[in-house]
Amino acid sequence: MSKEYDIVVMGAGHNGLVAACYLAKAGKKVLVIERNKWAGGGVVTQELTVPGFRHDQHSISHVCLAANPMMTDDELGLLGKFDLTYNFLDIPSITLFPDGSHLCLYKDIDKTCESIAQFSQRDAETYRTHATFGKKVVPMFLQGMFSPPAPMGAFLSMLDQSQEGRDLFQMMTRSPLDILNNLYESDKVKIHFMKPVAQLLQMPDDMGTGLCMLMIPGLMHTYGIPKPVGGSGRLTDALIRCFRHYGGEVVMESEVKKVVTRHGRAIGLETLDGQLHTGRDAVLAAIHPKRLDRFIDGLDEDLLRRANRVKSSPFNILTAHYAINEKAKFVAGDVVTQASATEYATTTHFKEFVDQFEPLRRGEVIREKLMFSGADQSHRDPSRAPPGKGVMLTQAFVPYFLKDGGPQRWDEYKEEVADMILAGMQPFLTNFTADNIIARTVDSPLDHERHSPNSFVDGDEHGLGTYLFQGGSNRPIAELSNYTVPGVAGLYLCGPFMHPSGGVFGGGRATAIKMFQDLGLDFQKVAAADRVTLQRKTGFEKKAGPDAPVAPRATAAAAGAAAAGAAAAVSTPKDAQSMQDVVLYGADGERMISISSLEPCAGGLQINGRIYGTVPLLATLRPEDLRRCLGLLRWRLIPFLFGMLFRRTGASSAPR
Fold first, then answer.
1. In terms of residue numbers, what domain contains 249?
2. Ramachandran region, residue 490 (left: φ > 0; alpha: ψ -120 to 50; beta: rest)
3. Could you tell me the CA-to-CA distances from 185 to 84, 96, 352, 609 in Å, in that order?
4. DSSP string of 16-78, one letter each residue
């Protein structure tokens, strides 16, 4: 039996749902097919232990979603129409040390520097410069996170035009370990900033992963860590409500067998029960590059070979979910309950901390001073548990392929590892004891893969490793990075293995933009339609424009090439906007492009300026492109442009 739609979607993960919502909002008849009993993929909250206790099974917080126009402009009405609410805490993260001390990363840079200064005044001064630079460059990178990726070569060429850009490139290609050792002197400060890097499933010495050292402080001090009230899965619930509101259909517990093609074009999805669901316009599928040949026949062998070479993250996560009778109490006090993320350090020596990663390379579980994190989610969100009780989550870094027994051994080993985590955490809490634990459920990397076998391959909840060589227009590989599959027209890909990355980005928006382009639809028009005026603060309000240039602060010594580049980019006077600059602003009021001069050159008109006030811009406008620009000037725009000469910012909008 065949059912016909405009678009059929394989997988109800949050990326697929986001794309499906935009397509349904555009008036397309869309069907989403999901193999599990639940929707959301890695964005799901369930009663995993006992009824009444709601646990986040995979993702916990939605850091990068905070900058997505889907949220800042409420393009799908998730905040205004479909009851999605987030908590934003003033302390994004805290690290607890075995000697009873702790270090807080506040959303406020000054408070963070005060916390760092208890261990090193020099490090506090260095961090202020480093974090301020991070805040400056984050908008540049985020601008490309929620739309199809720009060519990597063009981006790197742009960076190579200036010393600041080359300093930034150097940081991107280095390892977090290298950068931290150059920047900071305190072991505790280094441990504090390496822990969130490890949460990205990156080894400390992995080259080509250093960008996180700028992105993490930039994101934390700009947005913080948003968490949905009611659990991570509330985002999925809102997406489902949105999707159905615009006429979309969801079929659960139905597994896709094949992407059906005809004459080189995808025409639908065949499920295990023999049904064919056809898509007149397109098929959207969450298929990991290593699984393409299982679902699509006739793909080029060289393409499949390159797709199978993609690199997973170097280690994974084991998660234990606890229902506890009394909310967790911490030795460090109530400050811990005010933080979004809690990290535990079992040593105060950075070298010893870094050495703890070594067993993971060999497929071994860390048995001495196991690394872990976790918190009671009910402290700041009482809806997660019955009154007075708690929902404790613990995580530890583990390998997927165990040295002895491979991944299949996890079924017999995971409870033992969870016991090790429990024992390691107990010195940091006063009541995380057997008599306070009602029930526990443990998810190993093998369980993660079982939950989402076509996305979390090798147990990797990020889909793929976040290496520079498979980022942007090379994620997962260059041929697949534009969300299409060579040789199969009308087939599109989405998932954590695609740009922008693993984690909760709302990355399906970028896939939707590509599909809209190919289908001749106006994405911006659809995104702007049917919006409501929000009557409450959501935390996703548009951020103010960039701060004024920061005066340089003296530091005790040079912090290495990366820090020098950061300091130069922050404090150089030429970064300040000249009154003569022509400025193009982004949707959030940030200064995206500043044009300082126009000069004739052999190829046309040379444009000099800066991107986000940080990276120098040197571009050429060719004669044919100038003619295209003039062609965009519709006759109705002429009087509007003339009138702009006599208007101030904030006057009425342009003619439609």
1. 2-60+232-311+462-521
2. left
3. 42, 19, 15, 36
4. HHHHHHHHHHTT--EEEE-SSSSSBTTS-EE--SSTT--EESS----TGGGG-HHHHS-TT-T
CA distance 463 to 496: 5
> How many Å apart are CA 314 and CA 290, to the nearest integer?
16
C-alpha to C-alpha distance for 523 and 410, rounded to whole angstroms? 45
CA–CA gap between residue 388 and residue 372 (Å, rounded)? 25
What is the domain count for the chain?
Answer: 4
Local structure of residue 99 (DSSP, 8 states): T
Question: Of all residues in the chain, what percent carry a pLDDT higher than 90?
Answer: 72
Tell me the C-alpha to C-alpha distance, in Å, between residue 68 and each of 504, 505, 513: 10, 7, 13
Question: d(Cα 398, Cα 357) in Å, to the nearest integer?
Answer: 9
Cα dihedral 211→216→218→222 (10° resolution):
150
pTM, rounded to two decimals = 0.87
Give 133-145 pLDDT, tens digit per residue.
999 888 878 878 8
Same domain, 278 and 365: no
| Same domain as 206, residue 160 | yes
Residue 596 lies in a domain: yes
532 domain-assigned: no
Q: Note whether 395 and 491 are same-domain residues.
A: no
- Is there a domain that residue 55 lies in? yes
Q: What is the pLDDT of residues 423-440, one digit of tens each?
A: 999 999 999 999 999 999
